[in-house]
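Predict fold of Excisionase family DNA binding protein; 151 aa.
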Amino acid sequence: MSKASLSRLPPSQEDAELARVSGQRLAPLARMKRPLTMSVRDAGRDTIIELPVGAVQLLMDILEDMAAGHAVTIVPQDAELTTQQAADVLNVSRPFVIQLLKDGKLPYRTVGTHRRLRFEDVMAFKTAIDRDRRLALDELVAQAEELDMGY
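Predicted 3D structure, encoded as tokens:
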């Protein structure tokens, strides 16, 4: 899956604040929808880098999510996941994912003896189960209100 990581670690408070300040400084430049030339200083040495428009917008999205305290994951659109990575994305066990594959609920392909799932398919499945959970919760809330079980 290239160098993308499926880490779920949220940023520290310090990193979230740094992301907020950096995002505020970058936002006016990002709105211009032009490539940016940036000077990056590390260990007292300046390096000039150019960022394409798409990378600038992606950087803004990352900073906004980090500032909100969210963990950020970058995955290429055509990425394939292992069953363990899919389990991590879905927040379920690997055996549960294997059962979903056997039941035909998630498409996959085999590479040798290994199963690979398209990231897009896993995210579509996640969206569907999240929607079903919300609907079930809404239904329970409505039933509780009907029975006057509120606070």
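The mean pLDDT is 89.
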